[in-house]
Amino acid sequence: MYEITERELSVEEVEAKVRHPSCGAITIFVGTVRDVSKGRKVLYLEYEAYKEMAEKKLAEIGEEIKSRWGLERVAITHRVGRLALGEASVVIAVASPHRAEAFEACRYAIETLKKTVPIWKKEVWEDGEVWVGMEGTGDSG
Questions:
Q1: How far is Cα 38 from Cα 42, in angstroms, rounded to an integer?
Q2: What would the pLDDT profile of 103-136 be if each residue is shown by its tens digit?
Q3: Phi-psi domain of 70 (left: phi exceeds 0; alpha: psi -120 through 50; beta: other)
Q4: 25 with 98: CB under 8 angstroms?
Q5: Is the sign of the CA dihedral 109, 110, 115, 117 positive or negative?
């Protein structure tokens, strides 16, 4: 349910992990590589992670969602390595009997992931590169 991988991400694969007849709503968030950041043309991104700790932290997010919203059907997959423009870097799926909880929990998952999970992003531009969050301006994604 919680995975760090070098493989291309499949929205359908992550969604299938949470699909259940008791759930009338599935909310999916897909984070993708965009072509401009802070006014600079992005060529590609590189992600690195402390895999064991990152997967543990993703599972903690799932447990927090279970505790806060009573939802047990959560899946989060984050890709590492070099990603081209338009490729998915993260897919989050949350299933719930009702839509409101699914939307809230999915947003909570991405916001908490960005703050707490040991995954690092390097933006590579036409004229340079930087590890985002390490240059003193915070994460741009």
A1: 10
A2: 999 999 999 999 999 999 999 998 889 898 654 4
A3: left
A4: yes
A5: positive
